[in-house]
Design goal:
By secondary structure, the protein is an alpha/beta fold. 56% of the residues lie in helices and 9% in strands. It has three domains: 83 residues, Four Helix Bundle (Hemerythrin (Met), subunit A) (Up-down Bundle); 195 residues, P-loop containing nucleotide triphosphate hydrolases (Rossmann fold, 3-Layer(aba) Sandwich); 141 residues, Orthogonal Bundle (434 Repressor (Amino-terminal Domain)). The protein binds guanosine-5'-triphosphate (GTP) and magnesium ion.
Length: 446
Amino acid sequence: MFENLQEKLELALKRFRGQTTISEENISEAMKEIRRALLDADVNINVTKKFVEDVREKAIGQEVKGKVMPEQLIVKIVHDELVATLGGKQSELVFSSHPPTVILVAGLQGSGKTTFCAKLAKSLRKKGRQPLLVACDIHRPAAIDQLKLLGQQIGLPVYAQPDLKDAVKIAIDSLTYAKKFARDVVIIDTAGRLTIDEVMMEEVKSISQNVKPTETLFVCDAMIGQDAVTTAKAFHDMLSLTGIVLTKLDGDTRGGAALSVLSVVGKPIKFVGTGEKVDALEPFHPERIASRILGMGDILTLVEKAESEFDEKQAKELEEKIKKNQFTFDDFLDQLKTIKKMGSIRDLLGMIPGMDKALKNVTIDEKAFNKVEAVILSMTKEERNNPKIINGSRRSRIAKGSGSTVQDVNRLIKQFDDMSKMMKNITRGGKSRMMQNFKMPGGMGF
Ligand SMILES: Nc1nc2c(ncn2[C@@H]2O[C@H](COP(=O)(O)OP(=O)(O)OP(=O)(O)O)[C@@H](O)[C@H]2O)c(=O)[nH]1
Ligand SMILES: [Mg+2]
């Protein structure tokens, strides 16, 4: 995420390394580079100007006291400015005191609206809400089916009227349906267009006037950069947005949209999409994103991801098994699946401070887990429960069955062995249960 910006900011800030004071001179040079870094990342020119000015003002006149080095001081100032530019505090979703809460989702074609609706529904359900998805994109032929399929995938209802060519009526009817079936959050997916066009704007405006949404979220493809922000402004003028959703942050985004949107539109980013899967949604925390931009990692998000995927009861059972030395390949397989649900391995590792940079030129085989899975699945139930019986001939059979080599199988069994021992030690050490689970696959070589 934002690798380029990260790299350039780091270079600019490096100027202060080894220096003992902050002077007009070193600030001037560094500010030039920061300015260039931001403009290269496609940050809006006014936002860039303000950013640089604010940092300069705060940095000049700062006394370097005690053990604090100029570099640390300036990194802190830039970090704080990034946090402010990104919105300061996290801006949470607002719920209506008279359910259902209506969330209207709008944006340009292909920005990720439909995917976001499903992601949001899934995450709200996890928090105990009862969402209803509403298919109001009557223009693209397959749009309704796409939402229905996503609904099926996450096990949530989708309200649609495939034969009705009136998005406004569908939206109004969905509210009646929601009340009748006690759905407390209604998420309305609307049609997208290639550019802002009047017919579409009128349609979505009319939906908005009729359903009076609590939240109107504009879904914005972060890959498009600040152009997307200009569109967001046009939508805001028409719909009074309450928040922005930045999607495709997992791609090669330069950061322009993220850093410009608040100042241009005046509305906060509430969520970011970090992948195609329905789990790839994160609440937007300015502080954490700022840390990521500065290569400081984002441990908090990592821990939250782990916590949301690990089931307390399962973890307890697992702990017992580990204590009794009964941890099997089947348990291991379950753990792998949980980790896979958390997202791409590179993204996860990148949240550990310093790792993003360390991994820069390292290729991570995202499919490494699949290979491990294939090997385990080629074992018989007995072998999975009691790895000790896996002798030479069994190993070559497993290798053949999984399309891998005997060395791969040997390595996995060895790693499994080492890991079981390591886990036993950790359990004895009494660390938090969640972190034990989380550490396990770390033993798997990637
Ligand atoms: N990498 C990545 N892809 C995403 C993300 N969100 C959506 N996509 C992909 O972007 C494409 C478009 O997503 P949709 O959800 O259909 O977008 P939409 O805005 O509903 O599109 P229209 O209804 O045609 O206007 C799909 O291939 C999604 O899988 C994301 O956060 N990251
Ligand atoms: Mg759609």
